[in-house]
Specification:
- The complex is a heterodimer of chains A (151) and B (84).
- Chain A is of the alpha+beta class.
- Chain A contains four helices and ten strands, in the order βαββββαβββαββα.
- In chain A, strands 1-6-8-2 form a four-stranded mixed β-sheet, sandwiched between helices.
- In chain A, helix 2 packs antiparallel against helix 3.
- With 84 residues, chain B is of the alpha+beta class.
- Chain B has a domain of 54 residues.
- A five-stranded mixed β-sheet of chain B has the order 2-1-5-3-4.
- The termini of chain B are far apart.
- The chains are: A alpha+beta (151), B alpha+beta (84).
- Chains A and B meet through strand 5, helix 3 and strand 9 of A and loops of B.
Chain lengths: 151, 84
């Protein structure tokens, strides 16, 4: 399991290649790449800043990955989340999960993202034409995380 | 002594990101600490109001109002998270 919180950008292809290199038991890698959009809640976004809680962030992400490993038959997971100033089209987050077959990898990858959205201490502040604004948590993210409880 | 941290919108509106506090007797839980801080008035009263969606972590684990504050604890107040 690898969890990284960093300001620097990452190379999606190189990360996936390294993640699965020399592991012939892996039959599937599911991944999610989150990006900065240029619009949110009907306002243009020209820049955003991601703040986090150093220490707790890494711990929370490691707990989420450990929970995914307990629930699905997966080999490994990688989470990279950027912090600091970001602009539209920038990469924000990468989650990758490896397993023998696709079903477990897809499910675990979606679970990790849903829990990351509601449990990992990151906060977005957007710069819009009307000034800076902190992004409000979405009810749809809470619902997305809650549905895993029933399974 | 405890260390109290504030993040994101709370850090900005309270004008501080960290402080060392010696809570008085009777301030033993997260809820009691929030009550005590609210008594400072101004933004402390409005930002930490009971109807505001403020989250609290104690020693980097999510906490609830009745979570106890161990001596030397690191307590963090922050809004609901918005990463990803």
């Amino acid at each position: 399991m690898e969890v990284r919180v960093q300001e620097a950008d990452f190379d999606f292809g190189a990360e996936i290649a390294a993640f699965r290199a020399g592991k012939p038991k892996i039959g599937a890698v599911a991944s999610f790449l989150g990006l900065v959009r240029d619009v949110n809640d009907e306002a243009a976004v020209r820049e955003m800043t991601l703040e986090h809680y150093p220490g707790m962030t890494e711990k929370a992400l490691e707990e989420i990955v450990a929970e995914a490993k307990g629930r699905w038959d997966i080999f490994d997971a990688l989470v990279i989340h950027r912090v600091g100033p970001l602009r539209p089209c920038d990469q924000i987050v990468l989650v990758a999960v490896s397993s023998a077959h696709r079903g477990e990898a897809f499910a675990a990858c979606e679970f990790i993202m849903d829990y990351l959205k509601t449990r990992a201490p990151f906060w977005k502040k957007e710069e819009t034409p009307a000034g800076g604004r902190w992004v409000d948590a979405r009810e749809t993210d809470d619902k997305a995380a809650l549905r895993w409880r029933e399974k | 002594m405890i260390t109290v941290l504030y993040f994101a919108r709370l850090r900005e509106s309270l004008g501080t990101d960290r402080e060392q506090l010696a809570p008085p007797p009777g301030v033993a839980t997260v809820g009691q600490l929030a009550d005590w801080l609210r008594d400072r008035g101004g933004n402390w009263t409005t930002e930490l109001a009971a109807d505001k969606p403020v989250r609290v972590a104690v020693n980097q684990e999510m906490a609830s109002p009745d979570t106890l504050l161990p001596d030397g604890a690191e307590v963090a107040f922050f809004p609901p998270v918005t990463g990803g």
